[in-house]
Each structure stands twice: as C-alpha cells, then as structure tokens.
Design a protein that fits this description.
3 strands, Arc Repressor Mutant, subunit A, 90 residues
Length: 90
C-alpha cells in the first residue's frame, strides 16, 4: 500500500513533535512507533529520511558505550530542537 506524500509529511511532523516532547531523552524506534500507532519498519524508514535531512540524530550505542545490535535510539538534532523551540514560543 502506498502512502501519499502529504500523509507522510504529517507523520514526519508527529515524529518530530513526539521527539521534541521527550527531549533530551532519546527514544527507541519501537517507542516512537507505538506512540504513533504505526508499523516499526515504516517508522524506521521515516526516521532515516529525517536523519538524511539533518532533523534527527541516530544513537547506536547504549549509555555504557556498547553498540546496539538491532536497536536504535533517536533524538532531535540540536538545530531542529532550536528551530522547533522558537516555533513553539510564537
């Protein structure tokens, strides 16, 4: 099933808003997918697109510095957070 670009844009906005609300805590892909009631693979695809645009940062290591084998955590990039914060104040 194909999702229209306008619907993808709305989902991007939901992802960014959710990451902003949880900031500075990074969230696992599964947590984001669960919150948005979306398939985890689809959310992972969208997060990679947002990463390529510089809006989110992918975290591949846990707090002890060990690489995750299958999991990823995500947070807003500093630039996206600042921009989002300015937008929220107006």
């Amino acid at each position: 099933m194909k999702i229209s670009d306008s619907k993808k844009e709305k989902i991007y906005e939901q992802i960014l808003a959710f990451l902003y609300s949880a900031s500075p805590k990074p969230l696992f892909t599964s947590n984001i997918a669960k919150e948005l009631a979306r398939d985890e693979e689809f959310v992972f695809f969208l997060l990679r697109v947002l990463k390529s645009k510089g809006l989110v940062v992918e975290i591949r290591k846990n707090s002890k510095g060990t690489d995750y084998k299958r999991r990823r955590r995500w947070k807003l990039s500093d630039e996206a957070y600042t921009s989002y914060e300015k937008h929220q104040l107006h």
